[in-house]
Write a structure and sequence with these properties.
By secondary structure, this protein is an alpha+beta fold. The chain has 6 domains: 6-89, Phosphorylase Kinase, domain 1 (2-Layer Sandwich); 93-275, Orthogonal Bundle (Transferase(Phosphotransferase), domain 1); 372-435, Trypsin Inhibitor V, Chain A (2-Layer Sandwich), CATH 3.30.10; 441-503, Trypsin Inhibitor V, Chain A, CATH 3.30.10.20; 506-573, Trypsin Inhibitor V, Chain A (2-Layer Sandwich), CATH 3.30.10; 579-678, Immunoglobulin-like. It is 31% helix and 26% strand. It is built from 20 helices and 30 strands. It has a 6-stranded antiparallel β-sheet with strand order 1-2-3-4-6-5, with helices on one face. Helix 3 (108-127) packs antiparallel against helix 8 (189-205), helix 3 packs antiparallel against helix 12 and helix 14 (312-324) crosses helix 15 (326-368). The chain is elongated and about 160 Å long. Its EC number is 2.7.11.1. It is an enzyme of class 2 (transferase). GO terms for molecular function: ATP binding; protein serine/threonine kinase activity.
């Protein structure tokens, strides 16, 4: 799409931001709301598939329901000339992939802070039953205030069939693909959790866990190879933090976190000193019914039968032998019986002793095993009720912390440490976090700051920000001129709406034809259109004295408010002037008054016009007296924002003098009644 094209009569394309496997993205400007946006257009080769178009529209509309500060907001969905498009929030910054490359190694606390934002966004999507399927650092944007925003929600689901058949898309995502997706199975919420674990791995180590020459080789590693230990790469990483990676990237979905909120809770406390001695996470054993080989020691421990039944034929043969030698057989039986009984008795005694020992061990374990209990769920309870519940559960109340919370009322429990449901020994200490109410934020003075960056920062904090645009000749476009709530106010972001008055710069003026106008007429025109005038003089046989001969810039020129227009005024016919004249110039420096100086007189400070003057600009009026001017009329009027030097031209009869007077915001600040050539 070409630059300058206006989509739907509203979104003017500025430049291309990138091309993807399913859509192309452009930076555009919303002409109605006066803001920059991102426009995503479905790729040309996908526009002729009716099923794809329907899914694109359906899922795009669903994505507009995902309202979260960490999700790129979808503003509009539409179609023009067969082009399906999405209009989204424009995020100034970089993607997480580039951020990791530029800032690695990233402090652990910063890693957790970014991951918590990402998890918050995915949690919102999962609550709307939307699975991203393609979570990767390239789909996560980081703005200049380190606010993370996930993009491509809904589109990955809507076009999943195509994305799995497009080689470029698979190559870009296979490093973060879950084992079940690599096998061709259905993606679930646990699949997104696996991708989040790989992203956390990359933020901690600066690299992905699996590399390969082809996408297939990488995919095979995801469901065949164990995730490398992050502590092997950086031994300083706490075991609790590595456990978050290991649990999120377990091969079996059942071994991963049940939901994103659980992963966020675990990650939030991973740097806590209380988890310093945590053991390495190991997934539960899975008995899949495979044949197992028992060791020889197990076989030797199996009980041996005391008597083995002989086959029938053997009994018959023995009976026959006994009839021939009865005495010998009887004698042999007596000897065998006599020799067996002591051996059997020894086995019985040893077995009894062993049984008693085992029984004693079990009794000892039962007697001395510590009594366990579960941490009750006291979130939302008052402190007194929470203390009572912990005592009832045979636990001790530890340190009570105060923390701000937008969700939990004042003086009620926000969370416990360890978390509710954790099994502990009785009499273990449990800390409480009590809500102090919503977090308050102290507003700064934003006048003169960029509206775009200020609004983005405040919206990320939870403020509602509105804009009112006005023209200004003294404040650059896009800068804040006023704010609705005073600087220094402590407010609750989620309950506060801030309105900023923002400059759109100077308004343009198309110049009228001022030739043959009198000076007063020209000055009235300049005042009405906020223009500054400068005068030159020349003799003219065609234009009456005191009228404009020519102007610069000329008629029809487009200028900005505050620009200077030079008018050449007629002195009349030169033949009518008999006396010689002197022409010379005088430079006068006009100091800018910001309103904080103390050099004004008491009369000036008490004057109402002084108290109402603007502190960011001064209105200056200059009066001249020479052959062409009188001190009773304004020679030049201008607005200044800094110290300014002006050149005053004089034309006086030989031997005569001129005069000037400079008035700033209604007060005379400079004058000279005897100005001569030398």
């Amino acid at each position: 799409m070409r630059t300058g094209y206006t989509l739907n009569g509203r979104y003017r394309i500025i430049r291309s931001l990138g091309e993807g496997g399913m859509a192309n993205v452009y930076l555009a400007h919303d002409l109605i709301l006066d803001r920059d946006v991102s426009v995503k257009l479905l790729r040309l080769d996908l526009r002729d598939d009716p099923g794809t178009v329907r899914r694109f529209q359906r899922e795009a509309l669903a994505a507009t329901e995902l309202v979260n500060n960490n999700i790129v907001q979808v503003y509009d969905v539409g179609e023009e000339n067969g082009m399906q498009y999405l209009v989204m929030e424009y995020v100034e910054g970089t993607d997480l992939k580039a951020y990791i490359k530029k800032h690695f190694p990233i402090p652990y606390q910063e890693v957790i802070q970014i991951m918590e934002q990402i998890l918050s966004a995915v949690k919102t999507a999962h609550e709307h039953n939307i699975i991203h399927r393609d979570l990767k650092p390239q789909n996560i944007l980081i703005d200049e205030h380190q606010v993370a925003k996930i993009t491509d929600f809904g589109i990955a689901v809507a076009l999943s069939e195509h994305s799995l058949t497009q080689t470029n898309t698979v190559l870009g995502s296979v490093h973060y693909l879950s084992p079940e997706q690599a096998r061709g199975g259905m993606a679930t919420k646990q699949s997104d959790i696996y991708s989040l674990g790989i992203i956390l791995y990359e933020m901690l180590t600066g690299t992905v866990p699996f590399e390969g020459e082809t996408a297939v080789s990488i995919a095979l590693k995801h469901f065949q190879s164990e995730i490398p230990s992050v502590r092997d790469i950086d031994p300083r990483i706490p075991q609790a933090l590595e456990n978050v990676v290991l649990k999120a990237t377990s091969k079996r979905p059942a071994d991963r976190y049940t939901d994103v909120a659980s992963m966020a809770d675990d990650l939030r406390t991973s740097l806590s000193p209380k988890r310093a001695g945590e053991l390495r996470f190991t997934p539960a054993e899975n008995d899949d019914g495979e044949t197992k080989v028992l060791p020889a020691s197990a076989l030797s421990a199996m009980p041996v039968p005391h008597a083995i039944a002989k086959p029938v034929g053997e009994d018959a043969e023995s009976a026959k032998a006994d009839t021939t030698s009865t005495d010998q057989a009887d004698t042999g039986k007596k000897k065998r019986k006599k020799s067996r009984h002591p051996r059997r008795r020894k086995f019985l005694i040893a077995g009894g002793i062993l049984l008693l020992v085992i029984l004693g061990i079990f009794i000892g374990m039962a007697l001395f095993q510590p009594q366990m209990t579960n941490v009750p769920n006291v979130v939302g309870d008052k402190e007194a009720a929470a203390r009572s519940a912990l005592v009832t559960a045979k636990l001790k109340v530890g340190t009570v912390h105060k923390t701000a919370s937008d969700k939990v009322k004042v003086h009620r429990v926000v969370r416990t440490e360890p978390r509710s449901g954790t099994q502990l020994k009785q009499k273990t200490v449990v800390d409480l976090w009590i809500s102090t109410g919503p977090k308050r934020y102290k507003l700064a003075n934003y006048q003169g700051d960029s509206y775009a960056s200020t609004a983005a920062k405040l919206e990320a904090l939870g403020f509602t920000v509105r804009r009112e645009s006005v023209h200004s000749t003294s404040v650059p476009a896009g800068k804040i001129m006023q704010q609705s709530t005073a600087a220094g106010s402590n407010v609750v972001p989620s309950k506060t709406t801030l309105t900023f008055t923002v400059s759109t710069g100077s308004e343009t003026v198309t110049l009228a034809d001022l030739t043959n106008k009198t000076k007063r007429q020209a000055q009235n025109y300049a005042t009405d259109h906020n223009l500054n005038l400068a005068f030159q003089y020349a003799y003219s046989n065609d234009v009456d004295k005191g009228r404009v001969i020519r102007q610069s810039p000329g008629e029809g020129a487009v200028v900005q408010e505050g620009d200077e227009i030079t008018l050449t005024m007629s002195r009349g016919d030169q033949s009518e002037s008999s006396s010689s004249v002197d022409e010379f110039s005088v430079n006068v420096k006009i100091p800018f008054d910001s309103g904080s100086s103390d050099d004004q007189s008491e009369d000036d400070s008490s004057d109402s016009s002084s108290s109402s003057s603007s502190s960011d600009s001064n209105l200056v009026q200059i009066y001249l007296r020479d052959q062409d001017h009188s001190l009773s009329s304004i020679y030049k009027q201008m607005t200044i924002t800094a110290d300014t030097t002006v050149t005053l031209p004089f034309t006086v009869a030989s031997g005569k003098s001129g005069a000037y007077k400079v008035v700033r915001d209604g007060h005379v600040i400079a004058s000279d009644n005897h100005v001569t050539k030398n």
